[in-house]
Each structure stands twice: as structure tokens, then as C-alpha cells.
Amino acid sequence: MSRQRDDGLGAADSLRLQVQRMPSNTSVVHVDGPLLADTTAPMRRTVSDELLRTPELLALNLTGVTTIDTAGIDALTSAAMQAGESDIGFCLLGAQHGPVGAALSQANLTELFEMFNSLDDVGIPLAPPHPGRRNFLGRPTTGP
């Protein structure tokens, strides 16, 4: 399932969000456009909404972020903290390069985030895990 949000800004400077829910109980929020002080609120709401669904993993795909400021970095940090408090896996996709990677590096925050190029690199299990094994986040699995 995917859904898009419009944040009410003009087309040229708008933040576009799309949520993709995977069968592996993973939610991916695709973020495109500027992640700035006046555009972070829709992303924060979307992240909060997805965390309420309690996915196994919430991934933010940031490959489409064109620019980021300290408010954008704060929004990413807050998302990671919210996920951690809910014991939900969290990672950033495509954040190592471009404006997000540069901003996180400049703020000395790269070590706070698990970053991958794509979901394939995360190792999302396609089938339900077996009891006694550990999932891709290192947590014991439950269920059949």
C-alpha cells in the first residue's frame, strides 16, 4: 500500500512523502524534496503514524532529499528516538551520499543511524522467521 501526503507548499519547494508497506512488516517512507524547518512537520506526522502501526522496521528513503537543515536533522534524530522507544527497527536508506550524508557528517551524527543504500542491503526476510533464530535487527524472533 502506498499513500502520498501533500504538505501545502508550492510544487517547486514541496516535500513529497510516500509510504510503502511491505509484506515483511516493514514500512518505507520515501522522502523527496527539501527537508527544512518549514517542511519537516508532514514527515514527523507520517513517521508517527507509521510507528503507531508497529512495523518490525521503519526505513526512511532519503535518496530524493534535495537539501536539509538543522530542523531536518532534528526530525531524523527524533524519528530514530521514537522508533527506539517503541522497540521498532529504524534505518535510513540512501543517506550516505548527497545532502543528508553531508549534513549528518558535519553534525557528527552519522554513528547514530543505521544507513543502507537500499532495502536489499538491509536483508529484509521474505518469509516469517523461525523460533529461536534472530531477525535482521539481532532480536530474538517470535511466532511459528
From TrEMBL:
InterPro entries: STAS_dom, STAS_dom_sf. Residues 28-126 form the STAS domain. Coiled coil: none annotated. Pfam families: STAS. PROSITE patterns: STAS (PS50801). SUPFAM superfamilies: SpoIIaa-like. It comes from the Bacteria. This is STAS domain-containing protein. It comes from Mycolicibacterium austroafricanum (Mycobacterium austroafricanum).
